[in-house]
Structure formats: C-alpha cells, structure tokens
Task: structure prediction
Amino acid sequence: MNEENNHPSGGHPQGETTKLSELEQCKKQSEEYLNGWKRAKADYLNLKKDMEQQGREIKEWMSKMFILPLLEIMDNFDRAGTLDAGIESIKKQLEDYLKANGVEAMKVAGEKFDPLKHEAMESVDGDESGVVAEEKQKGYLMKGEVLRPAKVKVYK
Result:
C-alpha cells in the first residue's frame, strides 16, 4: 500500500514538511548572509578607495608644506642679484628640485589681474586698468594649482 494514503493528511508525512520548512529557512538565512557579505565588501571597497584618496591628499599637502619654505630661499636668491658660479649652481639645483616636484614660477607681467593668482601690493597709474604692471614677488604653481600667489603692482 502507498505510504501517502496511510498518512492522515493525505500528503507528506509531518517530518518531511518540517524538513522542507527548515530547508527554506536555511535558504533565506544563507541569502541574508550573502547579501550582508556583499554589502560589507562594497563598504570595504568604498572605504579603501576613500582612504587612498585621503592618503594622496595628505601627501600633496605635506609636499606643499615642505616646498613653501624653499620658495623663500628662491626669493633670497632673486634678491641677491648677481650670483657667483657656486651660488648660481645651488640656485639651479633648487629650481630643478622644485620643477621635478611639479612647482613652477608663474608668468604674471602683462596679465589681467586675477585675485586667485595675484596679490595686489599697490596700484600705479597706467593705460591698461586691471593689468599687472610689475611683479614684486614671484608666484608659484604646483601641478597647476596656485601654491603661492604672486605679489604684484597693478595698473589702476
């Protein structure tokens, strides 16, 4: 005789129904765990990317903090005027170091005054209002961004 017909409910025995229900619960639980793992992995990858970006920003900031005092040394070389060969060689080494680190002097004479790149020290009469008349102190860019604005005289 058929076992199904012997069971009072006419279907699966009670034990099999319980096993199926447990199997479905396990399947749901494993899906929850898998989804949780996927979210955690995505969070980790996002955190890792953010940390790498912060590391690059800190490194760039530290480079700027190291290079800014060197610009004062360059200013002193410029103020000194005529230099002997040994001092000129030191100045050239410093210029090469700055250039290798993405630092370059701005060219400002004759440019339209830009408060993001220039710091007006004084104004003088002239035909070209709002144009840089003279550079008082060099400005520098680092990798295309203003590291230090140029101090300038501006035509009024």
Summary: Residues 7 and 139 are 93 Å apart (CA to CA). The longest strand covers residues 118-124. The domain at 105-156 is CATH 2.30.22.10 (Nucleotide Exchange Factor Grpe; Chain A, domain 2).
